[in-house]
Amino acid sequence: MDFIKLLTYKAQTIIGNPEILEFIVNNRFLLIFLVIVLLKLKYATYSSLWMSSLINIPGTVLHEGMHFLIGLFFNAYPTKFDLWPKKDGFGNYVMGSVGFRNITFYNALPAAMAPLLLLPIGYYFNRWYFNNVDITLLNYLGYILLQTVIIENAVPSTTDFKVGFSYPLGLLLYGCILTFAVIYIL
Fold first, then answer.
1. Pairing mode, strands 93-94 and 86-87
2. What is the DSSP letter of 114?
3. Rounded Cα gap, residues 114 and 109, in angstroms
């Protein structure tokens, strides 16, 4: 029993040490290592539908939620919102999906690339977090977990790219809008 108390005391002393906390928070190698470990643990769950769904539900809600909201905003008329993982015909899991009734040239690209809007959310969360939260080891690990979920789920899927780039007129429209914004606004 004394060994467990001593071990707990030593662990609290190490974790609570400001120099060690500063080393952990400012060490980019350790940050990248932790993110890769998190992703490896996530992909290790893909052999089990239950574990896969438990691990992926938060990110799937964010990813599919962005499709739904932007599709609604651009009149794509979302008809189906599915968050439960399913196996496709090739044995892979499809984590979620949003079906649309009115995909056209003007809304295909925004509705399909909508998860990219998670990137500014992650950026502003990062700024807010380090200005407003007292950094502890547990808080920092939670921050890494949350940012990993946000950033990983901001990446559009291959299906998103196929839908988004299926209307050349839409690509031309948004290319012109982007060019105008870069030249005259930024």
1. antiparallel
2. G
3. 8
Residue found under tokens 């949003």: 98
Residue-wise pLDDT tens digits, 126-144 = 999 989 998 888 888 889 8
103's torsion region: left (phi>0), alpha (psi -120 to 50) or beta? beta
- Long-range (24+ apart) CB contacts under 8 A made by 166-171 are 166/108, 167/104, 167/105, 167/108, 167/109, 169/105, 170/104, 170/105, 170/106, 170/107, 170/108, 170/109, 171/109
d(Cα 52, Cα 123) in Å, to the nearest integer? Answer: 27
| β-bridge pairing 78-82 and 97-100 | antiparallel
* CA–CA gap between residue 112 and residue 76 (Å, rounded): 10
Q: Can you tell me the distance from the alpha carbon of 186 to that of 180, in angstroms, rounded to the nearest whole number?
A: 9
- 48-66 pLDDT per residue, tens: 777 777 778 899 999 999 9
Burial of 63 (0-12, 13-18, 19+ CB in 10 A): buried
CA distances from 4 to 10, 11, 137, 138 (A): 10, 10, 21, 21
What is the per-residue DSSP string for 80-110? EEE-S-EE-TTSPEE--EEEES---TTTHHH
Whole-structure pTM value? 0.81
